[in-house]
Amino acid sequence: MPGYQSQGPVDCTITVDSSKVKGKTAIVTGGANGIGEAYTRALAAAGVYITIGDLDESSTEKLTSEFPKQIHFVKCNVTNWDDQTRLFREAESFSPTHQIHYVVANAGIIRKDEVFEFGEPTEPELSTIDVNIKGTLYTVKLAMHYFIKQNGIVPGPEQHDTCLVLIGSGAGIHDCLRIPQYSATKWAARGIMHSLRRTSHFYGSRVNVIHPWYVKTKILSEEVFEEVKAKGVEFATVEDAGQCLLRILSDESINGRSLFIAARKWASTGYMDLDLEDTEENELRKEIQFDQMRGNPVEDGLIV
Ligand SMILES: NC(=O)c1ccc[n+]([C@@H]2O[C@H](COP(=O)([O-])OP(=O)(O)OC[C@H]3O[C@@H](n4cnc5c(N)ncnc54)[C@H](O)[C@@H]3O)[C@@H](O)[C@H]2O)c1
């Protein structure tokens, strides 16, 4: 597998060949509801074995009864390290190949943003940071551990494709008003991706980000979604998010990209590449990036 290359936007209009992922194993955090459930369903329909790590046990009963051989549930709070290590251990045991190929760090919340509030300042409640950043970083660390354990750090044909998918948001791309805390967590997903995408090929891996725009789920109340809709905002769909995940996983050339889950008025398949992540066409930024890498001895195998 080649390392990160600037290669222009991903074609999101082609038919996805999901046969490439059949028989593989995935972990989906927050996979019991909403967009995470759609990722799980899309993967299950493509013949993938999935271990869901979620706080919500009751919602997964339907999923696990529909796909009893393919879906395993682990009660897991992503902010708890022991829970996440158990999630990965159980996923490895549940996997027919005892390997973990794909990890989707999807669990996320949004809370009233006390960082933004006016009035006499009080210490803000930062659980959004805990779940969306700390929880995601635990997932990232464990994903890399398992990928490296399986593939080693010397690139070669015997390495099998693995992929980490981080979940950002329109709030990690666009100027979303008055939610600095949530926006910070979603820009963080891109930061993590940028930090890993040039070295992940050492351990046969890729890293990408999916950024949903408004998708009606339980993340916000019915009233909030109704209010937004009444103002003319068109929503994206959970099903299109599921297909976007399959597009990424089934194509080994996709590395270091951000795909946007968009309303169909913008994207014919419900997802698109806004071409956010390449810097190579800007000579100064390219030179600065080269300097950054010159200071890091990745080629000596010291950093993977
Ligand atoms: N729905 C949208 O419009 C939208 C837009 C942009 C980004 N996103 C992102 O997509 C992801 C999924 O959101 P959704 O809309 O499906 O939300 P949702 O609330 O419908 O589902 C989130 C799932 O994560 C689980 N979860 C929450 N905290 C957890 C924790 N600490 N440990 C384990 N599981 C936990 C919940 O139990 C639930 O099953 C999130 O990262 C969210 O930020 C959603």
TrEMBL record:
<comment type="similarity">
    <text>Belongs to the short-chain dehydrogenases/reductases (SDR) family.</text>
</comment>
<dbReference type="GO" id="GO:0016491">
    <property type="term" value="F:oxidoreductase activity"/>
</dbReference>
<protein>
    <submittedName>
        <fullName>Uncharacterized protein</fullName>
    </submittedName>
</protein>
<dbReference type="InterPro" id="IPR020904">
    <property type="entry name" value="Sc_DH/Rdtase_CS"/>
</dbReference>
<keyword id="KW-0521">NADP</keyword>
<keyword id="KW-0560">Oxidoreductase</keyword>
<dbReference type="Pfam" id="PF00106">
    <property type="entry name" value="adh_short"/>
</dbReference>
<dbReference type="InterPro" id="IPR002347">
    <property type="entry name" value="SDR_fam"/>
</dbReference>
<dbReference type="InterPro" id="IPR036291">
    <property type="entry name" value="NAD(P)-bd_dom_sf"/>
</dbReference>
